[in-house]
Amino acid sequence: MEPFTIGILAFFVIFGAALLGMFVKNRLPEHHLTPDSRDAIKLATAIIGTLSALALGLLIASAKRSFDDAGAELRTTAARILVLDRVLDHYGPETAEMRQLLRKLVEQRRLVIDSSILNGDSLNDGLDVEPIQDRLRDLVPNTDGQRWLQSRALQLTGQVAETRWSRPETEAGGFPSVFIVFIVFWLALLFVSFGLLTPGNATVTVFLLVSAISVAGALVLIIDMDHPYLGYIRVSDAPLRLVLERLGRP
């Protein structure tokens, strides 16, 4: 499910819970909201608030780790591509065509990352180094140095290919749906208590509305950041742009 869809649903559930609390408050007998009852409600909501804070903290940490890992993978891949280009250059003029193909692959990958429409399938686009691997295997080294360079180039292309196929598998994951449902449920309970314990005037209603939007927006940002290539918060393509400036140089 899209992060914005989850956020909209979460907003309606959370703000609806606050309105429900206000509605129930006006219809409960007075002895249900005595000071002792209010203290019990506050104690229960404090526990729920703590659980919600811990759960949101785990979500933020997980999303930040996914985003940082994606950035590190992109920088590592960019470095390997640059090293691969240098290895091919040292091998000899036989690899000139492979170097040109490598540049085209990097340009294609950068365009994919910059694309405003990106899905799980398009994550595989670009950096398909298998054609380069096939040509490397067809090379016939004449010296020990060329044999080492051929082996090194095959190793680098294998690492780039492994990273290319591991990222879509990671993006296909995400937070468990049950976990998100429970967080929204806990937040709804909190807002029910706010509706029960606060005056039902326009100021409080507007404040609860803004609070619900803020909480739902935070969920959207957290879930979106957990998909650093598919979401609106994406990793920077700066490493690939820097590599393109250096590729093909003698």
- Structural class by SSE content: mainly alpha
Overall mean pLDDT score? 86
The total beta strand count reads 0
Question: Count of helices?
Answer: 8
Largest beta-sheet details: none
Helix share, percent: over 70%
The poorly predicted ranges are: none
Instruction: Please trace the helix and strand order, writing H or E for each element.
Output: HHHHHHHH
Beta-strand residue fraction: under 5%
Task: Please tell me about this protein's structure.
The protein is an all-alpha fold and 250 residues long. Helices cover 76% and strands 0% of the residues. It contains eight helices and no strands. The mean pLDDT is 86.
Q: Could you list some keywords that capture this structure?
A:
250 residues; 76% helix; 0% strand; rod-shaped
